[in-house]
Structures are given as C-alpha cells and as structure tokens.
Amino acid sequence: MKTIEKKSASKKSTDQFSLLNKKAPSFTLKNSKGEKISLKDLKGQKVVLYFYPKDDTPGCTMEGKEFSQYAKKFKEHNTVIFGVSRDSIESHDKFRCKYDFSIELLSDEDEDLCQSFDVIKEKNMYGRKYMGIERSTFVIDENQKIIAEYRKVKPEGHAAEVLKFIKSQI
User: Fold this and answer.
1) For residues 123 and 28, what is the distance between their CA atoms, to the nearest angstrom?
2) Are 60 and 52 in contact (CB under 8 A)?
3) Which residues of the chain have pLDDT under 70?
4) In the annotation, is 114 catalytic?
5) What pLDDT, on a 0 to 100 scale, did the predictor assign at position 81?
6) Residue 41 DSSP SS3
7) Which of 26, 44, 109, 143 has the maximal Cβ count within 10 Å?
C-alpha cells in the first residue's frame, strides 16, 4: 500500500508538479449562494479542496454525494470541504439542490485557482482533445500548508480515503 506522500510526490508526467508541503495558493471564490469564500478566513481549520470536471455528471455527482455523506465526520475533525469546478454559481446551486449536498461548491469560472493547483490538463474524449479539469484533491492544514495531494482521482471511495487521511493526522 502506497502512502499519501509517495502517491503525491510521484510524477506521472513531466508537466505536473507537486504542491505537497508548500503553502496553499490563496484564493477568494464565490460559493453556490454567491458568498465569497477566502482561504485566509479558513486559517485554523483543515480544508479539503477537491477539483472536479463538471456539475451533474456521473462521476462528479458520486464524488459530491460521498463527500456530503462524510461531511459531519470531516467537521468533527475540524475540516471543511469545498468542491471546485469551472461551472457558474447558478450551475453549482442547481447541482447542490438537486442532490441535497451538505458540502459547498466554489465557482472558478476564470480558472485562476485551477491553474494555481495545476489541475487543467489535456483530456481526450471520443478522440476529441480538449483542456479540462483533472479530478484532484488537496488537503490543507490549519496553517494553510498542503499536507496531501491526490491526482487522477477515481471518485468512488475517494471521500472515505481522504477522511482516513484526516483522521491519521491527529
């Protein structure tokens, strides 16, 4: 079984860099209610930022449901969860309401945060190449340092894996 550090530090391609053990890029984004969420305001608690490709698609729905399922357990460990995609605030609101998510979604329509976390990658669907979000998750500690990095995430079971990591940090 690989440790988080080994998984995080290994590079699958030369165009990817690791953010592990670095200060998290600062951000201010709007949530599905239009409220501004800033990393600086979250100091003193852990933050899980999971980047996902698109609202209301099968894998993204599964991931949102699983993080919502464990939201109370994350909260018990002083951890907040935010899903991030390039979708609009309106799209996020519909997506959250449709599936009754208990986690918050942040809109990064300008891709600034996605670029800061190096999650925009070339993708290939049915022979068509395009730039999109590579499903990735980052755990930021109370001092805003990245303590875990997951790239090329498979949605099923991922929230439980991240929760297990959070619990191991106690």
Assistant:
1) 27
2) yes
3) 1-16
4) no
5) 98
6) helix
7) 109
Per-domain residue ranges of the chain:
44-168
Residue with tokens 């030369």: 14
Q: Which residues contact 67 (CB under 8 A, 6 or more apart)?
A: 48, 50, 74, 81, 83, 101, 103, 159
Residue among 4, 47, 60, 62 flagged as catalytic: 60
> What fold characterizes domain 44-168?
Glutaredoxin (3.40.30)
- Residue 55: phi, psi to the nearest 5? -60, 145
9-35 in b/e burial notation, b at 16+ Cβ within 10 A?
Answer: eeeeeeeeeebbeeebbebebbbbeee
Assigned token pair, 15: 């165009």
At 58, is the secondary structure helix, strand, or coil?
helix
Q: What is the pLDDT of residue 170?
A: 74
Amino acid at 135: R
Amino acid at residue number 99: Y
Q: Are 23 and 100 in contact (CB under 8 A)?
A: no
